[in-house]
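Supplementary material to the annual report.
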Amino acid sequence: MSTPVLEVRNLVTEFPIRAGVLRREVGRVQAVSDVSFDLMPVETLGVVGESGCGKTTLGRSLLRLIEPTSGSVRIGDVEITTADRKSMTRVRSQLQMVFQDPYASLNPRIPVRDIIAEPMRIHGVAKDEAAERVADLLRRVGLLPEHGNRYPHEFSGGQRQRIGIARSLALRPRIIILDEPVSALDVSIQAQVLNLLDEIQDEFQLSYVFIAHDLSVVRHTSDRVAVMYLGKIVEIGVRDEIYDAPAHPYTHSLLSAVPVADPRRERSRQRIILQGDVPSPANPPAGCRFHTRCPIAQERCRTEAPELRTVVGGQQVACHFPLEPGQTLVDIASR
Amino acid sequence: MTEPLLRVEHLAVGFPSKAGVVQAVTDVSFDVMPGETLAVVGESGSGKSVTALTVMRLHPKATRISGSIMFQGRDLLALGDDDMRAIRGNDVAMIFQDPMTALNPVFSVGSQIVESIRIHQQVTKQAAWERAVDLLALVGVPEPKRRAAQYPHEYSGGMRQRAMIAMAIANEPKLLIADEPTTALDVTVQAQVMEVLHEVQQATGSAMMLITHDLGLVAGTADRVQVMYASRLVETGGVDDIFYRSRNPYTRALLDSIPDLHATTDRLEPIPGNPPSLLRPPSGCPFRPRCQMAIDTCATAVPELVMVGEGHASRCHRTADITLNAEVTS
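Predicted assembly:
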């Protein structure tokens, strides 16, 4: 059994809610609420959920781009949450990030060559070696070395995302956090970038935390999948367990809501339409956070928060009444 | 034979810029029949939104337009501004992607619906307000009486989209144009909003032009589909024609490039390269540089849109070589 490259335990990230002229703190939003998982070598963990579920905050907390409130994030023998500046710099060379918006995440005033070389400059890589690596990286992500002289605005969205990926590879990291890396791209370009990510994962032996709202994309890229709702992981397990036999009612309804490019399937599908919106994370429901929208919620769900536990299918689920393989919400709700 | 509700013929739309004219729509012709849902699919820059905005005459002033847009026998492009205003929001209404830009933040949602009713119908404020509350109830806004008096910022994203739909259907339009109506929404809320749109169509019998890049949405809602690429229509047909019997290399490549929710795939089949510049399009077929099937003719002549079956047309020199189960390769 290999050891995880990243261990996350009971991670909590809170934001203060401020109000009034003095901006006094009047409350706290728990954007990430007691999240634990391991990331194994050369594994992709997909993190899915709707807006406000905390998936982006989770990604940023892992790198301390947002300071976590409590809990532990370990990479090797370094505890990231308490690491000092110096060891944090070292850790960041192993832990990189690719952002959603390729238009906002590249400095428009500096040429692509310097964008990719910047992490190497900070980490003291010699200039000649850095220049050589930039050329290699550009080639590796499907661009030309001479593209290094151009500025970000001269590239299309897909090409910019390739530049962001090249930058994330510059320090030879072991882990890359990918936050919605293809959601700003057109469908035909998405597939190009997803294939590229797949290739470099094998080549550089990378582990990915792949954060996305597109469930089809996550199925394609992930080995394991974590589903988040209002700051908590509600279901986590091997990809096909989650997709073929979701046990949490939320996962089930999320999957049933995704329209697929197959008219016959669309015509025959039984869609579970969830009522209402996601509640405010500033004031999450008591008990199970999903109970206000859950079609099969019972009294216990309103008072007692479920813990993650392993179910028949093999995955871990935080639900008092998980679905069994083959069972659908429509069956249960119509009973 | 029923008359089409909307008949667009040889529509061309160009935007002059310093570098030259950006040809956003080239020679686009199509019909929308009463009550049907026509999906217009394409990637960014394909011309799908510009086509929709031009039908509503919401394009910028300096735009160069030719062709005709006949709605119930009247050419919308030839109408004066007043006549157009009488049609817009009345017989033809639009739902936008971002409800926050389409709703006025300083008026209550109810009063905005009242306004759109009273522009086109002679009713008292009181009657219009009651109708607004009914409309909000119809689109699934809970506690519509109380919510009508609230302002857009007090609504969530999904609720705002419902409010905009309520406003769009206030005058029972014959044609609803929905431009990426659910793109900004989460998938569970998207399902709610699409359900509302479907119910509204059932209740009012209105036709819908659904502009979207989401092929899943198209598969579940459209009767007919037209696919646009680089300002042109490249394929048009019934929803099953497009998804199961496509005769166009671009449509096929687009369908092949999306990951599958219901099966685990090893490798995706992307379309190589990028969409062409609309300022300096390539010679011949605009898809040629990315097409696996391209032959010499494709570099010299733009293919015509030709009928390949009942109500099914494709723009490709090699249409004849694409049979039902053929692999799309050269």
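The radius of gyration of chain A is 21 Å.
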